[in-house]
Each structure stands twice: as structure tokens, then as C-alpha cells.
Design brief:
six-stranded antiparallel beta sheet, binds adenosine-5'-diphosphate, disordered N terminus
């Protein structure tokens, strides 16, 4: 039978390590494994950061060196032009100092001014501060005055130039429009006499806009700072800059009061790098986050694994602790998929995965034939109910109870699960109890007959006396020689009839007492009662009880053991007779009635009633009525009703009693119809 099941590696001791049949989830590695990926990520981030830092540093260095070069270049361009302007003013001062008429210089000065618009004017100021000559000629005195330094500065310049005899620059100043200017003064000295200065007003804004090469002004914000740190000029279209990329150089003029500051504009490449850095940072964050969530998921999974393993261990422990063997096998291949320790103990020598079909043949009936696949699974593959059967292992002389059902296996397929319990002990006990029961029934029958012995002896004695009388009469007639053949025949016939009567009683008693196996077969209950009446009538007569049979004519055959049912009837009739011993003779009436009973929800039965008019059953007696050894009689055993109930229930019937309203009791019992039993058997 072991086909359905097997033990998982049941070895020497038949001990099957269930873990082998159902491998538990493996334990996970410790949390330290996470150090490696996190360290790798940290290293990666550090490497990227270092790389970026180096790239940025390198680029900043290049940027700074470009800035220095471009600033120098711009400074050179500016100072070269200013020196050229200075040179013009010096030349005009020299020409006038050497006696040349100033008016002859007008055209030359005007052409120069037109070509260099940052130079706003060229003037000859007398020591008294009046303007002796001015270019361009189209500017009137007031518009020229608006471009010049404040009067005090003008005076200071005249004094300074006169005193030193050297050309000089004014402090930077602002015109009426708040535009920054400086003015250059060159002394006019003729024959030792100071004749004033030739000056030129230079618009610093115009100078910066015109003189700085476009390639520089596009890349940097260029400012002019005076000696006290004030910003004189800043381009109108200045954009956002990197303040940290700034370079300052002094304009190399005879007067060193002006600084040129260049600050790099923010460039797209730097924005690109910033975007790149942001992307790298983002990627790093995403990586760290996904690593972190991976770790959480792995830890969660590990938690689930642990819970699973604990549940698996609980499952295996409980299964292994069962006295019954549990096995799961494939329907088709008969491969053993699982079994517990008890199974392995019962069937040592089988391992997981082995084909166990050969085990089945040890059993009667063969389980897979007694409970085929079709009995466990519906046609559309749904799982059916549990099937129970008892099988015998003839080779080992053991009995097993099997519970077989289909279950859904872990991979979804339907498999056969079998629970097997050794019931040999129970079977032996059942057998012992059956033998005991039989002995008990026989004893009970013997007792019944024993109780009726004197009545029976009397009953047999009567025909025997009659036979003796008939025989004596016949002998007398034969001896007298006056005998008629008819008389002798009549006497002998009567004698034979009496012998037959005695023989029937003896036959009944023998039948009743015969030790035999119970045999249930279809039979007429009315006939059984009629035949039994011959036996019990004698007892009833003796007790002056009228025995009345009221069989229902149409009652169908019952499925019963005749002798057992007779035993029930004898007990019930005797109890009825006993109960009526104290009632007046004219009321001593015992009725045995049969009828077909049909109750809702149960198969039709035949009901037998034994009705007496006795003393009835008191409530305190009622509780104990069917208990063994309960009796109210001096010579009673108290086993009668208990045995009756066992016999009736053995026949799937029911035994009970009811009270009659006018005194007395009715004992009822039911028996199944032969036709219902035939249906059940089919
Ligand atoms: P026993 O007849 O040996 O006493 P039973 O089991 O047959 O044992 O009956 C148990 C008791 O039930 C009887 O002693 C009696 O008191 C009561 N009893 C049984 N049948 C009847 C009946 N028909 N009427 C009244 N009492 C009864």
C-alpha cells in the first residue's frame, strides 16, 4: 500500500528526516554583506567627486590664466591709446610753446578728435584760467565746461603744472551726466614764461567702450576703479559673473590712479558642468537609494524566510508528532512527494521520490483500486471529499485505517494524500468484544430458557403423558383381542401428533440455544413472531396472561438475524408477563403488534410493539432502564433490555418505550426493510 506514500529516506531505524521530504528555507547571510556594496558606492562617489574637483580646478586655472592674459591685453590697448592722446596734447603744447599759432593746429586737433571720440576736447587754458583756444571748434564754451573738472581741480592743475613744468593728470571726475572723466594737462612754456596748459578731457566710459578689444569685453565684465576703490565705470550690459574669477591691473600711465578690473562672465560650459554635476549627484542619490531599498527588501525577504522556516518547522514538528502516518504521492507516477516520521516508521525502506506502487499490493483491498482517482477528483479537476477505508496487511497480519483525499500540492497539481493509522489493536478488541457479546447473548438465551425450564418440562411432559396413555390404551386393546383397526390407528395417530408437538418444542429450544454466527437475511417478522409464540405461549399460559398477536398483513420482509430478534422478543414478552403478575387475571393481556413505520427523513422500517397492561415504569426506573445489571426483580439479572438495545442497534434499528394512558407500557423497536438493505448493499 505504500504506493501512495513513502518515507523520506527512512533508513536503519525507519526514522525519516522530514526536512529531506520538505527542505526548509535556507538561512540568510548576515547584515555585514551590505558593507561591500555601500563601501563601493561611497568609493564611487568619492572618485567622481575627486575627478570633478580636479577637472574644475584645472579649468579654473586655465580660466584664470586666460583672464590674466586678456586683462593685460585690454590694459595694453587702453594705455597705448591714452599715451597716444597724451602724445597729441604734448605735441600741441610743444608747438604753441615754440611760438606756433594755435589756430594752425585746429584742423589737426579736430581730425584727431573725430577719430578718437573718447577725447572730448583739447583746450589751451591761460594761467588765469580762461580758454585761449579750443577744439573742436563746433563746441561752445558751456558744453565744453560741462565736460571739464570742477573749477577748483582746474585751478589745482594749472598751479601744479605751472609749478612743476610737467604734464599731469587730474583726479577722475564726473561730468554733469555723471559720466567719469580724467583730464590731461601739458604745460605751455615759452621763453621761460608759463602760458597756461594744453588739456584734453577723456571720457573714461567712451575709452572703455572703444578701446577694449571686443574679444575681451565679451568675455569679462571690465570695470575701472579709482585710487580710493570707487568704481568709475561698469558696462551697461554687465551680466552675471563668477566673482571669484577676477583680475585687477593698474593702467600704466604716468599717473597710476586707475585700476582695470576684469571679472569672468558665467559661461555655458560652466553651466553644462554644473548640470553634469547635478546629474552625477542625482545618479549617486538614486544609486544609494536603490541600494538602500534593495537592502530593505532583502532584509524583509529574510524576515519572511525566517517566518516561513519557523512555520515549516512547526508544521514538520506537528506532523512528525502524529501517531498516524501522512504521505503525499503523485497520482500518475506514484512518486512519493512527502511523508512524516510515523509513516517512515510504519514503512521503513522507502525514500522520497521513489516509486511506491509496489507497497500497495501488500494490502487487501488495494487502496488505489478501492479509492481510485475518479473518487477523489471531480471530472473538471476539483478536489473531492475524504474517503475512509480499512485495509489489511496480510503478510504482517496488521490492520490499518486509511483516510484518502486529493489535495493541491505546492506546484498546483492535484496529488493523493493518505493518512494511515495502525488499528490492529482496535480490530482485536472489536473481535474480542464480538465474541464476548455472542457469549453474552447465548448466556442470556440460556437464562431465558432456564427461567422457562419448569414450564417447558411441563409442556413436554404433557404430550409424553398423552403418548404414554395412547400407547397404553393401544396395548390394552391389542391384548384384549377385541380391537378395531380404526381405533388403533386413531390412537397411534394422536400419539404421533403429541410426539410431534413435543418434538417441535424441543426443536424450538434447541434452535434458540444453538451457538452460531449471526446471519442477517430477509425474513418475515410476522412469521418469526408466530413461531416464537409457540415457545412463549406456554409461559404466558402459566402466568395466566392472554398472548395476542396483531400482525399487520402487508408488513414487508425485514433484514435481520432471526434468533437475535427472537431473543429480543422473548425478553420483552417475559418482561411484559412479569409486569402483569400483580394485576387482575382478566386484565392480563399482552399484545405483540407489527406495522410499517415511515418517518420523515429516514428510510422506511418495520416497527414491532410489545404492549402490556402491567405496573408500568416509574420515572426513577426509567433513567436506569437500559443500564446493565439494573433490575427491580428479586431473581432478575438486569441484562435483558441492555442486550435488546444492543441487538436492535446492531440491526440499525431503534428501541424505546412509551407509557399507556390506562396503565402499562409499550416497548417499541424498529428493523430495516430487506429492500432498503439491498439498496444500501448495492
Ligand atoms: P430483568 O428483567 O432481569 O430485571 P431487564 O433489563 O429486562 O432485566 O429489565 C430491567 C428492569 O426494567 C426490570 O427489572 C423492570 O423493573 C423494568 N421493566 C422492564 N420491562 C418492563 C415492563 N414491560 N413493565 C414494567 N417494568 C419493566
Amino acid at each position: 500500500m505504500q504506493a501512495q506514500f513513502d518515507d523520506s529516506g527512512a533508513d536503519a531505524g525507519g526514522h525519516a528526516p522530514s526536512a529531506a521530504t520538505h527542505p526548509p528555507p535556507s538561512r540568510r547571510a548576515g547584515g555585514s554583506v551590505w558593507i561591500v556594496p555601500f563601501a563601493a558606492l561611497a568609493l564611487f562617489v568619492a572618485a567622481i567627486a575627486a575627478l570633478l574637483w580636479f577637472v574644475l580646478k584645472h579649468e579654473a586655472e586655465i580660466e584664470l590664466s586666460n583672464l590674466r592674459r586678456d586683462t593685460q591685453y585690454a590694459e595694453l590697448a587702453i594705455t597705448r591709446r591714452i599715451l597716444a592722446h597724451q602724445d597729441l596734447v604734448d605735441r600741441i603744447a610743444g608747438a604753441i610753446s615754440s611760438g606756433q599759432d594755435a589756430l594752425t593746429l585746429t584742423d589737426q586737433a579736430q581730425i584727431y578728435l573725430r577719430q578718437n571720440p573718447e577725447l572730448r576736447n583739447v583746450l589751451w587754458t591761460s594761467p588765469a584760467g580762461t580758454i585761449s583756444w579750443a577744439a573742436p571748434s563746433w563746441k561752445d564754451a558751456s558744453s565744453i565746461a560741462r565736460e571739464r573738472p570742477p573749477p577748483a581741480e582746474r585751478e589745482r592743475m594749472l598751479r601744479l603744472t605751472s609749478a612743476t613744468g610737467r604734464s599731469t593728470y587730474s583726479d577722475p571726475y564726473r561730468d554733469y551726466q555723471d559720466e567719469p572723466y580724467i583730464e590731461y594737462h601739458s604745460p605751455v612754456v615759452r621763453e621761460g614764461r608759463f602760458l597756461g596748459t594744453i588739456s584734453a578731457s577723456l571720457s573714461l566710459r567712451a575709452a572703455m567702450q572703444r578701446l577694449v578689444p571686443l574679444s575681451v569685453s565679451e568675455k569679462y565684465r571690465l570695470s575701472l576703479i579709482d585710487g580710493s576703490g570707487r568704481e568709475l565705470f561698469r558696462p551697461d550690459d554687465a551680466r552675471e559673473t563668477y566673482e571669484w574669477l577676477t583680475q585687477t591691473v593698474s593702467l600704466t600711465l604716468p599717473w597710476r590712479g586707475l585700476d582695470l578690473t576684469a571679472t569672468s562672465y558665467k559661461s555655458d560650459s560652466l553651466v553644462g558642468r554644473a548640470v553634469l554635476m547635478a546629474i552625477i549627484a542625482l545618479v549617486t542619490i538614486v544609486l544609494a537609494w536603490s541600494l538602500w531599498s534593495l537592502r530593505r527588501r532583502v532584509e524583509m525577504q529574510a524576515g519572511v524566510d525566517r517566518a516561513l522556516m519557523a512555520s515549516h518547522e512547526r508544521f514538520v514538528t506537528v506532523l512528525d508528532a502524529l501517531d498516524s502516518g501522512v504521505a503525499v504521492s503523485d497520482f500518475d507516477t506514484r512518486e512519493l512527494l512527502f511523508c512524516n516520521e510515523s509513516f517512515a516508521r510504519i514503512f521503513p525502506g522507502h525514500t522520497l521520490g521513489s516509486n511506491t506502487a509496489d507497497l500497495e499490493t501488500a494490502f487487501t483491498p488495494i487502496p488505489s483500486q478501492a479509492v481510485p482517482r475518479a473518487a477523489l477528483l471531480t471530472a473538471d479537476g476539483r478536489l473531492g471529499g475524504v474517503h475512509k477505508l480499512e485495509v489489511r496487511d496480510e503478510s504482517r497480519d496488521l490492520w490499518y485505517a486509511l483516510r484518502v483525499r486529493a489535495v493541491r500540492w505546492v506546484d498546483g497539481r492535484a496529488v493523493r494524500m493518505t493518512m494511515i493509522s495502525d488499528i490492529t489493536e482496535r480490530k482485536l478488541a472489536d473481535e474480542r468484544s464480538r465474541v464476548q457479546q455472542e457469549k453474552l447473548l447465548l448466556t442470556s438465551r440460556l437464562m431465558s430458557v432456564g427461567e422457562m425450564a419448569s414450564t417447558l418440562a411441563h409442556e413436554i411432559n404433557q404430550p409424553l403423558s398423552a403418548i404414554a396413555n395412547y400407547n397404553m390404551g393401544a396395548v390394552r386393546r391389542l391384548k384384549s383381542d377385541h380391537w378395531q383397526k380404526e381405533d388403533l390407528v386413531a390412537a397411534l395417530e394422536k400419539s404421533a401428533a403429541q410426539a410431534e408437538r413435543a418434538g417441535r418444542v424441543v426443536h424450538r429450544v434447541r434452535e434458540f440455544l444453538r451457538r452460531r454466527e449471526p446471519v442477517r437475511e430477509p425474513g418475515s417478522i410476522n412469521l418469526i413472531i408466530a413461531e416464537l409464540a409457540e415457545l412463549v405461549e406456554i409461559e404466558a399460559d402459566k402466568a395466566q396472561v392472554q398472548l395476542v398477536l396483531e400482525p399487520e398483513a402487508e408488513v414487508p420482509p425485514v433484514f435481520a438475524d432471526r434468533v437475535m430478534i427472537e431473543q429480543v422478543l422473548v425478553n420483552l414478552i417475559k418482561n411484559g408477563i412479569d409486569a402483569m403478575r400483580a394485576v387482575p387475571v382478566d386484565r392480563r393481556r399482552l399484545v405483540v403488534r407489527t406495522r410499517q413505520a415511515q418517518a420523515e427523513g429516514v428510510p422506511p422500517m418495520v416497527e414491532i410493539q410489545v404492549i402490556d397492561a402491567g405496573h408500568g415504569i416509574a420515572p426513577e426506573v426509567e433513567r436506569e432502564l437500559f443500564s446493565p445489571f439494573f433490575t427491580t426483580k428479586d431473581n432478575g439479572m438486569g441484562m435483558g433490555l441492555n442486550i435488546c438495545r444492543s441487538i436492535v442497534e446492531m440491526h440499525e434499528g431503534h428501541l424505546w418505550f412509551s407509557r399507556r394512558p390506562d396503565g402499562g407500557s409499550v416497548f417499541h423497536f424498529t428493523l430495516p426493510l430487506a429492500e432498503s438493505a439491498a439498496v444500501l448493499a448495492a
